[in-house]
Design a protein that fits this description.
Elements (H helix, E strand, L loop, with lengths): L5 H17 L4 H33 L19
Helix pairs in contact: 1-2
């Protein structure tokens, strides 16, 4: 699962959520789906953290200062 791309993991996670929301799964199937969903969620978070670190490295200036700027669509910061 670690070699799965972020987009693939997110798409699979969305499929699992839809199946669970439908309520057609047995208890055992729901538990298995939940377990897979947790693993996929952690994988997505890991890949997002890795991407954030790469962006921070790219934004470093010569003095090792990092200037973090919000994305244009960021509604929390403005």
């Amino acid at each position: 699962m670690d070699d799965m791309k972020f987009e693939e993991a997110l798409a699979r996670l969305e499929e699992i959520v839809k199946k669970m929301e439908n309520g057609d799964l047995t208890l055992e199937e729901s538990l298995d789906a939940f377990e897979e969903g947790i693993k996929l969620s952690r994988l997505c978070a890991k890949k997002l953290n890795e991407a954030e670190r790469r962006v921070e490295i790219l934004l470093k200036d010569e003095d090792e200062n990092v200037e973090i700027k919000p994305f244009a669509g960021d509604t929390e910061n403005g």
